[in-house]
């Protein structure tokens, strides 16, 4: 026998219905993704060129808001008034992202051919290995530049590689993404995990690499640093960890050049342990962001310009 409490506010029933709809929607999305991944690995990989073409054309038609944001940000940061030039960059960005998605599918299907197209820039691999030889681990920070998943896979094929990731709205979908990354050697660390601090300490004490992305406005501890001449809320985790564990802090990125992917790693940033901690964290974050900004300037179409990078304003942050 089912008992219904008619004294419960109607809003609770509405919430239950909305939660049921959300769960149903998540299950459908996850089922479609699993089906598509299975189909791609089984036979659709033979049509990868057509899939890329479809993704590129459909996203160009459907993602009108993202195109508008990308053009707006490009206009603000590059002061380019020629609409055709801005449209060309956004179109190239759209092509780059569609290509990157198919490359990730190929990486998931068979990593060896995919990694054959990824190379270290001259001296970059040596920089990483020299930093690891100190046996303090390495904090490697980067951004959503080039095909960052291929960069991570190349690093994982060279050294023990871990990355801090954010949980999505669906735990089972997270598991699929984690299994994808683990298939090519990446150990994903969920930043919301209860034992995340212990995991990070173990990784660095074991002399491994910990990767963090710092080029987006997210709900983590941050500071405001210049990015394309405008203050942007930027995660400080990489700088904080490097200071705490006295670990080399390396800034890197990758670019697609003539069908190949080149991984660039900069020498470890100079750290002043005598400086005030918050000031040093801000200084290191500023320097790392400046390096990534230059990488984006070099290949503007290989960054995610539709991300609302400057949505949080310093005055709003201080009063909230």
Walk me through the structure.
With about 325 residues, the chain is an alpha/beta fold. It folds into two domains: about 10-110, no CATH class; about 115-320, no CATH class. Helices cover about 55% and strands about 15% of the residues. It contains twelve helices and nine strands. α8 links the parallel β3 (about 160-165) and β4 (about 185-190). The termini are far apart. The model is unreliable at about 1-5 (pLDDT under 50).
Weakly predicted, low-confidence segments: 1-7
Distance between the termini: 49 Å
Mean pLDDT: 90
- Sum up the overall morphology in one term: globular
What integer value in Å does the Rg equal?
A: 22 Å
Number of helices: 12
Q: Strand-residue fraction? A: 15-25%
- Strand elements, count: 9
Structural class, from secondary structure content?
A: alpha/beta
State the major sheet: 7 strands, mixed
Q: Give the tally of structural domains.
A: 2
Helix content: 40-55%
The spatial strand order of the largest sheet comes to 1-9-8-2-5-3-4
| SSE arrangement, N to C | HHHHHEHEHEHEHEEEHEEHH
Summarize the structure in short:
It is built from 12 helices and 9 strands.
Present the secondary structure layout.
Elements: H1 10-42, H2 48-62, H3 64-78, H4 83-109, H5 111-115, E1 118-120, H6 124-132, E2 138-142, H7 148-156, E3 161-165, H8 171-183, E4 186-190, H9 196-205, E5 209-213, E6 222-227, E7 230-235, H10 237-245, E8 249-257, E9 260-265, H11 277-298, H12 314-319
Helix pairs in contact: 2-4, 3-4, 10-11
């Amino acid at each position: 026998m089912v008992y219904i409490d008619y004294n419960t506010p109607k809003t609770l029933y509405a919430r239950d219905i909305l939660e049921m709809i959300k769960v149903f929607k998540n299950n459908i999305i996850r089922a479609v993704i699993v089906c598509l991944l299975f189909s791609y690995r089984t036979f659709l990989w033979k049509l990868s060129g057509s899939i890329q073409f479809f993704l590129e054309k459909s996203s160009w038609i459907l993602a009108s808001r993202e195109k508008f944001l990308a053009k707006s940000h490009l206009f603000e940061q590059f002061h380019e008034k020629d609409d055709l030039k801005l449209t060309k960059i956004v179109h190239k960005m759209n092509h780059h992202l569609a290509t990157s998605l198919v490359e990730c599918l190929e990486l998931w299907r068979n990593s060896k051919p995919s990694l054959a197209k990824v190379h270290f820039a001259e001296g970059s691999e040596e920089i990483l290995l020299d930093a690891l030889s100190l046996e303090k681990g390495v904090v490697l920070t980067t951004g959503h530049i080039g095909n960052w998943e291929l960069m991570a896979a190349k690093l994982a094929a060279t050294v023990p590689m871990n990355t801090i990731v954010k949980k999505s709205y669906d735990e089972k979908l997270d598991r699929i993404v984690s299994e994808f990354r683990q298939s090519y050697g990446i150990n994903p660390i969920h930043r919301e995990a209860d034992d995340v601090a212990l995991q990070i300490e173990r990784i660095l004490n074991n002399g491994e690499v910990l990767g963090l992305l710092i080029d987006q406005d997210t709900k983590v501890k941050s500071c405001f640093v210049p990015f394309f001449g405008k203050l942007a809320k930027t995660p400080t985790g990489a700088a904080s960890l490097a200071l705490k564990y006295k670990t080399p802090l390396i800034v890197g990125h990758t670019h697609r050049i003539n069908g190949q992917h080149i991984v660039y790693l900069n020498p470890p940033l100079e750290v002043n342990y005598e400086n005030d901690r918050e000031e040093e964290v801000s200084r290191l974050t500023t320097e790392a962001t400046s390096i990534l900004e230059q990488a984006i300037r070099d290949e503007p179409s290989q960054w995610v310009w539709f991300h609302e990078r400057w949505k949080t304003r310093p005055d709003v942050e201080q009063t909230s």
